[in-house]
Automatic annotation (TrEMBL):
<dbReference type="GO" id="GO:0007052">
    <property type="term" value="P:mitotic spindle organization"/>
</dbReference>
<dbReference type="GO" id="GO:0007018">
    <property type="term" value="P:microtubule-based movement"/>
</dbReference>
<feature type="compositionally biased region" description="Basic and acidic residues">
    <location>
        <begin position="662"/>
        <end position="677"/>
    </location>
</feature>
<dbReference type="GO" id="GO:0005874">
    <property type="term" value="C:microtubule"/>
</dbReference>
<keyword id="KW-0505">Motor protein</keyword>
<keyword id="KW-0493">Microtubule</keyword>
<dbReference type="InterPro" id="IPR027640">
    <property type="entry name" value="Kinesin-like_fam"/>
</dbReference>
<dbReference type="GO" id="GO:0051231">
    <property type="term" value="P:spindle elongation"/>
</dbReference>
<dbReference type="InterPro" id="IPR036961">
    <property type="entry name" value="Kinesin_motor_dom_sf"/>
</dbReference>
<feature type="binding site">
    <location>
        <begin position="128"/>
        <end position="135"/>
    </location>
    <ligand>
        <name>ATP</name>
    </ligand>
</feature>
<comment type="similarity">
    <text>Belongs to the TRAFAC class myosin-kinesin ATPase superfamily. Kinesin family.</text>
</comment>
<dbReference type="Pfam" id="PF00225">
    <property type="entry name" value="Kinesin"/>
</dbReference>
<protein>
    <recommendedName>
        <fullName>Kinesin-like protein</fullName>
    </recommendedName>
</protein>
<feature type="compositionally biased region" description="Low complexity">
    <location>
        <begin position="493"/>
        <end position="504"/>
    </location>
</feature>
<dbReference type="InterPro" id="IPR019821">
    <property type="entry name" value="Kinesin_motor_CS"/>
</dbReference>
<feature type="compositionally biased region" description="Basic residues">
    <location>
        <begin position="634"/>
        <end position="647"/>
    </location>
</feature>
<feature type="compositionally biased region" description="Basic residues">
    <location>
        <begin position="759"/>
        <end position="768"/>
    </location>
</feature>
C-alpha cells in the first residue's frame, strides 16, 4: 500500500451560554476569496494591520488559496496579541458550529470504516484545548451520538449486509485510559484495575499487555459495555469544563473478517485525548494540578513527536510518554490516521486555539505507510510420509488420501521445526511441526534409508498407518536383536572372567542390580549364555510395543494427530513442545485472541497432560470465551530467592518490557510489591517453567523470537543476582544435589539493550 498522510478535520464547537462573541474569534471559511497572504508561522508572525497570514504548510505554502481557485477554505483566527492580524489555516475538511455529528461522520469517518474492514489499522483522534468539544465529537450525548457509537453502528450494518455471503466478521472491543501516564483497562471494575504495561511483540508492534478484549455481536452488546466503561473514565470538574476528561481514552475495535480462505484483521482506534489546559484558567487544586501536568506533558510529547516526524529527525521520541507509545502506529506507522481538531470559539482560548491549529497543520504532513493485514487460513497440508520402501498394506481401506493436494502451498506450522531427532523407537519424527516425510524409512533389512521428500501418491490413511506400524515394528525388532546380541556377549565375557577368577580365589557373593546376592555358579545356572531371559524380555517389549502401536493407530484413525505426536515424542521433547504452545497461547491471550489462545493451550495440554495449572488456565479461558468476558492472564510471578528474598518475575514470555527501556523503571512499584507477596504454587511454577523453556536456544530454533528480554538494570534494581550465565553452571553443579527447581524464568537482557542477543538464566533454589 502507498503512503497516506494523516487527514485533518477541523471542528469549531458552538458557543456556550457564558461565552461572549469577539470579532477575532476563530471562524470557519468555506471557499472565501483569498486576500493578501504571507506564508508564515502564526505563532510568531508580526504582520501589519489587516494582514491575513496563511499558516505554514508544505501542502499549501505558496498562498492563501488552498484549492488553486483563489479561494480559501479553513480556519481564520486573530492573533491574540494583535487582533488586526488574522491567521489562516487551510484545511479541506472543516466544520462550523452548525455542523452535525452525522455530517462529520459521513464525510470523514465513514470511509475509514471500509478501510478498517479491508484489514488496515485506522486511528481517529480528537485533539484540542479543554472544553473544545473532543468528548462531544467522539462520544456525544445519547440523543446526538458521536463518532464512536456511529462507527459501531456502521460496522454492524455492514456485517449484517454481508451475512448472506461467505464473509463473516467478528468484532471485539477493548477500552483503556491513560491517566497520569498510567494505562488502565476501562472494561474491568475500577477496584480490580491495575496499571497495565506497554509492550512490544516479536514483530515490533506495540500493545498493552493484559488489556481485555470483549467480543461484541450487536450494537446493544457494545452499548452495554461502552456505557459501563465510560462511567469508569476519570472525569472531573474544572472551572473550564464541569465534565473535563482527566485522561486520554483509547477505544479499539478489533475486526476479523473471514472471506473464503483469507482472513483480514483490521482495527479502529478511537482516541479521545484529554485537553491541554492552562492551570491559571482551570483553577485546579493540587490533585487536578497533578493530572493537568500529566496531560500537558503527554500532549507536549505528542507535539515533539509530530515535530520530529516533520523534520525527519533521526529519533522520534515516542517513548517519552505512554500516549505517544500507544499512538505510535498512527503517527508515522502503519495506520491510516484522522485527526479531528476541535476548536473552542471562546476568546480566552485564542492562544490555545492557535497552538491546536499549528499542531494540526504540522500533523497533516505526517506520512504513514498503511499495511493490509491479510493471511491465508487454509489448514496446513497434511504431513508427507516417506513410504517408498515400506511394503504395501495387504487390505487398504478406501479412505481419504493424506497426500498433499497439488497446488496447495504449505504454511509454516505454529511451532517451528526442530532438528530431526531419532526417538528410542527409531522414528525420526523430528518433533512437532516436522512433516512425517522426515521419518527415516526402514528397509526390509532394518537399515534406515535416505529420506525422500514426497510420499507416493494415492495411498490411503489406513495404508499409511499400516506402513508406519510395520516400519516401527521392523526397526524395533532389529534393535532388540542387536541389544540381545550385545547382552549375550557381555554375559559370556562376564562368565569367562568369573570362571577365571574363581580358579584364583574363593568366590565372593556379588550384589546384582536387584540387590540379591548370588554366587557366580548360581548365576551361571540362571543366566547361561543362552537367550531364554532375553527372549522373555523381548516378548514383553513386543507386547508393550504392540499395545503402543495399537494405541497409535487408534489415535491416528481418530484423526488426533496432535495426541499421536505427543505419544511418540520423548518426555523432554513433549515438555518443550508444551512450553512452546503455552508461550504462544499466552502471547495470544494478552493480545486478546482468546479463541486462538485456547486452542494453543489445549494443544499444550496434549504434551503436558498432568499440568494442573494448565488445565485451570484452559477452564478459565473457556469460561471467558463462552461468556464473552475478558480474560486477565495471571500477573507477573514472583519467585523466592535463596535466603528467602523475593523478586518480581523479570518479564512475560515473548515480549519486551518497553517501559524499562523508556525510562519508566519506577512505575508499577505498587503492583510489583503486591506480586512479590504472592507465593507461587507448584502448579503455577510448572506453567512458568513450561513458558520459560522457550528462552533457551534449543527451543525449536525460535527461542529468539519469543525470548523474553528483561533488562539487566531492572534485575539490579530488584536486588537480584546478576551473575553472568557463564559462571552459573559451576554453582549449579555444586548445588545440584541439595536444590530443586521450583521456579524458572529469569531472563536477562544484555546491558547494552534489547538489540543484543538475549540470554537466559535459570535459577535453582533451595527446596522448601
Ligand atoms: N458540537 C457541539 N454542540 C453542542 N455542544 C457542544 C459541542 N461540542 C461541545 N459541546 C459542549 O461543550 C462542552 C465541552 O465539551 P467537551 O466536554 O466535549 O469538551 P472536551 O474537549 O472533551 O473537554 P475536556 O478536554 O476538558 O474533556 C460540553 O458542555 C459539551 O456539551
Amino acid at each position: 500500500m502507498a503512503t497516506a498522510k494523516v487527514r485533518i478535520a477541523a471542528r469549531l464547537r458552538p458557543r456556550l451560554a457564558h461565552e461572549t462573541p469577539d470579532p477575532g474569534d476563530p471562524r470557519v471559511c468555506h471557499a472565501e476569496p483569498a486576500n493578501t497572504s504571507t506564508s508564515s508561522d502564526p505563532g510568531k508572525g508580526k504582520g501589519s494591520a489587516n494582514t491575513s497570514l496563511t499558516a505554514n504548510s508544505s501542502a499549501n505554502a505558496s498562498g492563501s488559496s488552498n484549492n488553486g481557485s483563489g479561494t480559501f477554505t479553513g480556519i481564520a483566527v486573530a492573533n491574540p496579541r494583535d487582533a488586526s492580524q488574522i491567521f489562516r489555516f487551510p484545511f479541506t475538511s472543516c466544520y462550523d458550529a452548525d455542523a452535525t455529528q452525522a455530517a462529520i461522520f459521513d464525510a470523514d469517518v465513514r470511509p475509514l470504516v471500509d478501510v478498517a474492514l479491508s484489514g488496515v489499522t485506522v486511528t481517529i483522534f480528537a485533539y484540542g484545548v479543554t472544553s473544545s468539544g473532543k468528548t462531544y465529537t467522539m462520544q456525544g450525548p445519547r440523543d446526538d451520538p458521536g463518532v464512536i457509537p456511529r462507527v459501531v453502528e456502521t460496522l454492524f450494518a455492514k456485517t449484517t449486509a454481508t451475512s448472506g455471503t461467505t464473509e463473516k466478521t467478528d468484532i471485539a472491543v477493548s477500552y483503556m485510559e491513560i491517566y497520569k501516564d498510567d494505562v488502565y483497562d476501562l472494561l474491568v471494575e475500577r477496584e480490580n484495575g491495575r496499571k497495565l504495561p506497554i509492550r512490544e511483540n516479536d514483530v515490533g508492534a506495540v500493545f498493552v499487555a493484559g488489556l481485555s478484549s470483549v467480543p461484541i455481536d450487536s450494537v446493544a452488546t457494545f452499548d452495554k459495555h461502552y456505557t459501563t466503561a465510560t462511567a469508569r473514565r476519570s472525569v472531573g470538574a474544572t472551572l473550564l469544563n464541569d465534565k473535563s476528561s482527566r485522561s486520554h481514552s483509547v477505544l479499539t475495535l478489533n475486526l476479523r473478517v473471514r472471506a473464503g480462505d483469507k482472513v483480514r484483521e483490521g482495527k479502529i482506534n478511537l482516541v479521545d485525548l484529554a485537553g491541554s489546559e492552562n492551570n491559571k484558567l482551570t483553577g485546579n487544586d493540587p490533585s487536578r494540578m497533578a493530572e493537568s501536568a500529566a496531560i500537558n506533558k503527554s500532549l507536549s510529547v505528542l507535539g515533539q513527536v509530530v515535530h520530529a516526524l516533520n523534520t525527519g529527525a533521526p529519533r522520534i521520541p515516542y517513548r517519552n510518554a505512554k500516549l505517544t507509545r500507544i499512538l505510535q502506529d498512527a503517527l508515522g506507522g502503519a495506520s491510516v490516521g484522522l485527526l479531528i481538531c476541535n476548536l473552542s470559539p471562546a476568546s480566552k482560548f485564542r492562544q490555545d486555539t492557535l497552538n491546536t491549529l499549528n499542531f494540526a497543520v504540522r500533523t497533516k504532513n505526517i506520512e504513514n505507510k498503511p499495511v493490509v493485514n491479510e493471511r491465508d487460513i487454509r489448514p496446513p497440508p497434511p504431513p508427507k510420509i516417506d513410504l517408498a520402501l515400506v511394503p504395501p498394506a495387504p487390505a487398504p481401506k478406501p479412505r481419504e488420501s493424506l497426500a498433499i493436494r497439488p497446488g496447495v502451498s504449505a504454511r509454516p506450522s505454529l511451532v517451528p521445526r526442530p532438528a530431526s531427532r531419532t526417538s528410542t523407537f527409531g522414528l525420526g519424527l523430528g518433533g512437532v511441526g516436522a512433516p512425517f516425510s522426515r521419518v527415516s524409512s526402514i528397509s526390509a533389512t532394518g537399515v534406515p534409508v535416505k529420506e525422500k521428500e514426497a510420499a507416493p501418491p494415492g495411498l490411503t490413511e489406513a495404508e499409511i498407518d499400516a506402513r508406519i506400524s510395520r516400519a516401527v515394528e521392523a526397526e524395533v525388532a532389529r534393535r532388540l536383536e542387536e541389544r540381545e546380541r550385545e547382552k549375550e556377549r557381555e554375559a559370556e565375557m562376564a562368565a569367562a572372567a568369573q570362571a577365571g577368577s574363581s580358579r584364583a580365589k574363593s568366590p565372593k557373593p556379588r550384589k546384582d542390580r536387584d540387590g540379591s546376592s548370588r554366587s557366580p555358579k548360581a548365576k551361571g545356572r540362571e543366566l547361561p549364555p543362552g537367550l531364554t531371559p532375553l527372549l522373555k524380555r523381548h516378548k514383553d517389549l513386543d507386547n508393550e510395543l504392540q499395545a503402543r502401536l495399537q494405541e497409535l493407530e487408534r489415535k491416528f484413525s481418530l484423526g488426533n494427530k496432535e495426541t499421536a505426536l505427543a505419544d511418540v515424542l520423548s518426555p523432554v521433547s513433549k515438555k518443550k513442545t508444551g512450553r512452546a504452545y503455552v508461550a504462544l497461547a499466552r502471547a495470544h491471550s494478552e493480545k486478546g485472541d482468546l479463541q486462538v489462545a485456547l486452542e494453543l493451550y489445549r494443544r499444550a495440554e496434549t504434551y503436558v497432560p498432568d499440568n494442573v495449572k494448565l488445565k485451570e488456565r484452559i477452564i478459565e479461558i473457556e469460561w471467558a470465551v463462552k461468556n464473552d468476558r475478558a480474560f486477565k492472564p495471571s500477573p507477573k510471578r514472583t519467585k523466592t530467592k535463596k535466603g528467602g528474598k523475593t523478586k518480581a518475575r523479570a518479564e512475560e514470555v515473548g515480549e519486551m518490557d518497553v517501559d524499562a527501556a523508556a525510562g519508566h523503571d519506577g512505575e508499577n512499584n505498587d503492583d510489583k510489591k503486591r506480586e512479590q507477596e504472592q507465593p507461587l504454587s507448584d502448579d503455577q511454577m510448572e506453567v512458568d517453567e513450561v513458558e520459560s523453556s522457550l528462552t533457551g536456544p534449543a527451543a525449536f530454533g525460535f527461542g529468539a523470537e519469543l525470548t523474553n528480554t528483561g533488562s539487566k538494570r531492572s534485575l539490579v534494581d530488584a536486588g537480584m543476582d546478576t551473575q553472568t550465565p557463564a559462571k552459573r553452571p559451576k554453582r549449579r553443579a555444586a548445588e545440584k544435589n541439595k536444590m530443586r527447581v521450583v521456579a524458572i524464568e529469569s531472563d536477562e537482557e544484555d546491558e547494552y539493550g534489547p538489540a543484543a542477543a538475549p540470554r537466559k538464566s535459570r535459577r535453582r533454589i533451595a527446596a522448601t
